[in-house]
Design a protein that fits this description.
about 40% helix, single chain, alpha/beta, seven-stranded mixed β-sheet, globular, 17 helices
Length: about 450
């Protein structure tokens, strides 16, 4: 090899390393200061991607995807600069496309502790991890449940891994009650809402992966108008939707806004505690049902004596809890709570219908006075396969809304939402149509998730 050839190869390696570094920074895979330190130690002609992988700063999948993109661009456009904005989603931290996931092999994890599985699932941007008998592990990503390429797990595999994960007290509870809910904390590996249970084939576990940081409304692609719900000093705000639709994240974003913008006392009642709120402007106390209190009802009753300003209820499951939440809202507290209902009308009806018929008229009057709004949401898979988009039904309290609730005419609420667009209200169907109009979802997804499919033919 001539000197000129060596110099050309070195220059090309240097340019590739610079491009690789720009892409890494653009996609927020590594902090700039850390990257500069690594590049300063990079030998001439060395592979920056390999070095970042060896340092544990990026995954092999990230390195391979970025290198392939640089190579493709160089082949098609000579020495033209790589466009950092065109990096495939799989190269972005915490985001993997379904097609990329299908090509990955996870057999190397077989027999390792559950910590390793959970860390890998977190790195890929999964929302849930399933560890079950007679199946490879499964993950939920972008709303889809996907089986990993991995050996089928036996009852012995799952039992051994779950036993190693639990402490003595948790193992005793699982043995006695045959299931257990708790939040698993793995230090730098993050936190996971965990459900372990015994079924006919053996022990299994499902993990909800809790993000490392509390998301903002912008992070969740939610409108700024929702911040209005954090500015009330009393009343009740409902965040509703089916399981896995992001209710907890939306609730956390609202509570975090209150924590940073007000000087109040926040009490949360959860099962289990998910996001950890570090006190900012507010004093924050978090209670785990069955760990720090017996039930949601007893926790709410106790919270009323704890000088709270804001009460966050992880889930209103029964009449006693709903009754206490309404009472708290009526007595000068802001209550943020979740329900498993799919729109504003059914959310209001659920609050009232859990009570005996003889009490419903009084409850209806109380709800009409204390209701501040409803956020109903669904997560719809994106057309490009890179994630999900929230579809929202938003109802703000107005005199018209209060009158319809009081008079038992909640079936007329959709017309109020239609005419209240300037106020920030929107129906679920209109929200889905807006996503379809922007090309973010397919017509099939739109029709599947909407009760009113008018204008969703694509």
């Amino acid at each position: 090899m001539t000197d000129e050839t060596r110099e050309g190869t070195a220059d090309r390696s240097s340019r590739d390393a610079a491009r690789f570094g720009r892409i890494v920074l653009k996609n927020q895979l590594v902090e700039e200061a850390t990257l500069r330190k690594v590049m300063a130690q990079l030998p001439a002609g060395a592979d920056l991607g390999a070095l970042l992988v060896s340092e544990g700063l990026i995954t092999e999948q990230h390195a391979r995807t970025i290198s392939q993109k640089i190579s493709q661009r160089a082949t098609s456009q000579g020495e033209a600069e790589t466009d950092e904005n065109e990096v495939p989603t799989a190269a972005r931290k915490g985001v993997t496309s379904l097609s990329d996931l299908d090509r990955m092999d996870f057999s190397d994890l077989h027999g390792k502790p559950l910590d390793d599985y959970l860390m890998r699932a977190r790195q890929l941007g999964c929302s849930d991890f399933h560890f079950q008998v007679d199946s490879p592990p499964l993950v939920r990503i972008h709303g889809h449940l996907v089986r990993w390429k991995h050996p089928v797990l036996t009852a012995e595999d799952t039992s051994r891994a779950i036993r190693a994960m639990l402490d003595e007290e948790q193992w005793k509870e699982l043995s006695e009650h045959l299931d257990i809910d708790f939040c698993l904390e793995l230090g730098e590996s993050g936190r996971y809402r965990t459900n372990c249970y015994r079924q006919r084939k053996g022990l299994e576990a499902i993990f909800r992966i809790i993000p490392d940081t509390i998301p903002s409304l912008a992070d969740l692609h939610l409108p700024d108008s929702l911040s209005e719900f954090t500015q009330y000093n009393q009343g009740i705000v409902l965040v509703t939707g089916p399981a896995g639709c992001g209710k907890s994240a939306t609730l956390a974003a609202l509570v975090n806004l209150i924590n940073h913008n007000r000087k109040d006392h926040i009490v949360t009642v959860e099962d289990p505690i998910e996001y950890i709120f570090e006190p900012a402007g507010c004093n924050v106390n978090q209670r785990h049902v069955r760990r720090h209190t017996q039930t949601f009802y007893t926790a709410l009753r106790s919270a009323m004596r704890a000088d709270p300003d804001v009460i966050m209820v992880g889930e209103m499951r029964d009449m006693e809890t709903i009754s206490m939440a309404i009472t708290a809202a009526e007595t000068g507290h802001l209550v943020l709570a979740t329900l498993h209902t799919i729109n504003a009308v059914r959310s209001i009806d659920r609050l009232i219908d859990v009570f005996p018929p003889r009490e419903q008229e009084q409850v209806r009057a109380m709800v009409s006075e204390s209701m501040r709004g409803v956020i109903s949401q669904q997560l719809l898979p994106r057309k490009d396969g890179t994630g999900v988009e929230p579809a929202l039904e938003i109802m703000f309290s107005t005199p018209a809304v209060g009158n319809l609730i009081r008079e038992g005419k909640t079936f007329q609420l959709p017309s109020v939402l239609q005419t209240g667009k300037k106020r920030g209200m929107v129906t679920m169907a209109d929200s889905i149509r807006a996503l379809l109009g922007k090309g973010l979802i397919t017509p099939e997804v739109a029709r599947f998730h909407s009760e009113d499919t008018t204008g969703m033919q694509g």
